[in-house]
Design goal:
Blueprint lengths: L1 E5 L3 H12 L3 E6 L2 H6 L6 E4 L5 H4 L9 E4 L5 H13 L5 E4 L3 H10 L3 E3 L1 H14 L3 E6 L4 E7 L9 H4 L1 H5 L2 E12 L5 E10 L11 E7 H10 L6
Parallel strand pairs: 1-2, 1-4, 2-3, 4-5, 5-6
Antiparallel strand pairs: 7-8, 8-11, 9-10, 9-11
Helix pairs in contact: 4-5
InterPro entries: NAD(P)-bd_dom_sf, RCK_C_sf, RCK_N, Trk_Ktr_HKT_K-transport
Protein name: Trk system potassium uptake protein TrkA
Organism: Psychrobacter aquaticus CMS 56
Length: about 230
């Protein structure tokens, strides 16, 4: 897929690098040449440009782009102006970063397709990570259902998937197992890359350092975790 990301702050740059690593084509723009130069080796394309200038923005391949993300967070006015401009230029799917409730209402009035709340979403994930000893990450499908990644509890090492009887006992499903590989990026920062083991099968033996990818209702996942000795605050 092809993305345009507006703003190379902490959120925009991290998103651009992650999408590039996944094999997508990313055009990241920022008004700071310093930021553009800093990320040119780790994001597909970086361009120094004023995202509120209609004349220059028109030169971007907006029609051929699947998703435009306005990631500007420091300047709400610039965020709104850039979002409105891409909406006027008929971006196929437009997502913008929301800073506060009033800002969110303005973006909704412009007609964005979706909103990003990186601080709020990060806080929710950290709340789970801090309250569950084995918690790695999660993706909330709704208020009540999630897909969660959990480091394998010691009690499960050596058991087969079938022997856990997750669906029968807890009404949850083990989708897959994965392992994280760690490496240093070009900035010397430690990054992690998941290595997915494939769909879980009944005869699969769970091993040390496995990360379990589980789907189900939050209450059922918590019940399962308690059953294997994970303390939930």
């Amino acid at each position: 897929m092809k993305y345009i990301i507006v703003g190379l702050g902490n959120f925009g740059s991290s998103l651009g690098m992650a999408l590039t690593r996944q094999g997508h084509e990313v055009i990241a723009i920022d008004s700071s040449m310093q930021k553009v130069e800093a990320y040119k080796e780790v994001i597909s394309h970086t361009i120094c440009m004023d995202a509120t200038d209609e004349y220059t923005v028109k030169g971007l391949p907006i029609i051929d782009t699947d998703i435009v993300i306005v990631a500007i967070g420091e300047d709400q006015g610039e965020n709104v102006m850039a979002t409105a401009l891409f909406k006027t230029l008929k971006a196929k799917r437009l997502i913008s970063r929301s800073i506060n409730p009033l800002h969110e209402k303005v973006l909704q009035a412009i007609g964005v397709d979706d909103l990003i709340h990186p601080e709020k979403e990060a806080a929710k994930r950290w709340a789970k990570r801090l309250s569950l000893r084995y918690f790695v990450d999660s993706f909330e499908l709704s208020d009540h259902f999630s897909i969660v990644e959990i480091s394998i509890p010691v009690a499960l090492i050596g058991q087969t998937v079938d022997s856990l009887q997750l669906e029968q006992k807890f009404n949850i499903r083990l989708l897959s197992t994965m392992r994280y590989e760690y490496y240093e990026d070009s900035f010397g920062r430690t990054q992690s890359k998941p290595s997915i083991q494939g769909l879980a099968v009944p005869e699969q033996i769970l091993k040390d350092k496995d990360v379990l990818v589980i789907y189900g209702a939050n209450k059922d996942i918590n019940q399962f975790l308690r059953s294997v000795g994970v303390k939930i605050k």
